Amino acid sequence: MKRGQSAMEYLMTYGWAILIILIAVGALFYLGVFDPSTPNTCFIEAPFVCGDVKIADNGVLLSLKQNNVETYTIIDMKVNGVSCEDLFNNEEITSNEQEIYCILGEGNNLDKNAKASITFDVEYSAKTGLEHIKTGQGSGQNENQIMVLMEGEGEQIGAIFVEEYEDYNCKELLNYFPYLEDGIYTIDPDGEGEIEPFDVYCDMTNGGWTVLESCLAFSNVGLDGLEGNPQGAPDVIGSGDYMIDPDGVGELDPYLQWCDLRVYFILNNQPNQDGNLLDSSTWVVESTGSQPGFSQNGATSENSIELGINPYGEEVALWKGGNDAESNGDGGWNTAIFTVDPSKTYRYTYWVKKIIRSGTTYFGLQSNVGRLDGGTQSNPYFWCGQVPQADRWYLIVGYIRPSDTTVETGGIGGVYDGVTKTKVISFTSTTGNCYSDYKHLQGDTTQQHRAYLFYDTNINNRQWFYDPRVEVEESLN
What we know:
Elements: H1 2-30, E1 41-43, E2 48-55, E3 59-66, E4 69-79, E5 82-83, E6 86-88, E7 97-103, E8 115-126, E9 131-141, E10 146-151, E11 157-162, H2 170-176, E12 183-187, E13 198-203, E14 209-212, E15 240-244, E16 255-259, H3 261-268, E17 294-296, E18 303-309, E19 315-322, E20 329-335, E21 338-339, E22 346-354, E23 360-365, E24 369-370, E25 376-377, E26 381-385, E27 394-401, E28 414-417, E29 423-426, E30 438-439, E31 446-447, E32 449-454, E33 462-472
Parallel strand pairs: 14-15, 27-30
Antiparallel strand pairs: 1-9, 2-3, 3-7, 4-5, 4-8, 6-7, 8-9, 10-11, 12-13, 13-14, 15-16, 17-20, 18-19, 19-33, 20-32, 21-31, 22-27, 22-33, 23-26, 23-32, 24-25, 27-28, 28-29
């Protein structure tokens, strides 16, 4: 009885203290205080000193310092007894401090928290002219990051370390895994966005090019039925130069072509308004004349906002130009002034559809701009002409390049068929006016978007306008 009573008194007296200690110890384990991680270490004899070693899933960064060495080369590096698939910045080194990158081969990546043993052989020439070999050793633990190689200064390679692997395109795949060969790879343009991963052919031999049959070919890959525009990847995998191989392994040689994948996205998917300098949501259905941010072209009776079917089959607010018998302005707008940066390229777009092919459709700018071949263009238009077919939506696209662009040729802007998704008219002129892209003048800070129906005397014609946009295009200079 007394023993039971003593035990009970002991628990009552010290139980709470024991419980508190157990909770404290658990918290310290949770916070990693007792984590048995292995510190990264590195050693090599003089005249070298290990500056740092960093271990990632796919490779190792080794920083070496030297004294009184003419030149040296890392002739071999092993991680857990296996030689690196590739070494970068490792040959004929003359600097006092150098970062060398080891990329592990396929199948040799390190597991999470895995320990690594490193050996490396350094062949060097002392300033006395004698050649020597030193062997260094390192050890540590995978820091659970991925080493991504980047272009550095001159012929040097740099690297960053990231938590997650991002397979947005072929180039990024090659940055992660430089040993990859040409072939079919799965890319994920918008990461965790709405576009599902899909397969493309990657030309790894020439630096990680995503190979397309044509710019148009990409519009049919992974985009069907996509709702909205995932702003994490507004240009899908990014507008820019792509390797075009029109007949696969046929007789035609591949060539580089700049593709505006944002345009092909717009041709297939209703984009949201993020990044658009204009706001057509201000249009009021069943109203006439000017709208907030849009000043009418022509009479109030020739400009109205009505419900209609847009290029994506949705019922939305459309701007309708309805002309009289006079040969003058017959609908459309000049937008309010907006701010631009003359060091950037801007893409100007809007959709247009006519009931009858009469009058002239205009798309242009209000302020003076520079011609691509030099000089100033007043009253500038990207395009003024006639749509190829009646009762069909067309996307008109024009570009203003940076003021310091060295490009002197046109052909990027144009008119796209909303049904076939192909460019049917190219803006190839460099002298203005109409059928032309432009560049900013030095010091330009403002601009306006304008779209018209003009000189139409057929009172039965109607021109519909939809979704005016002005967006920055980062990949064009």
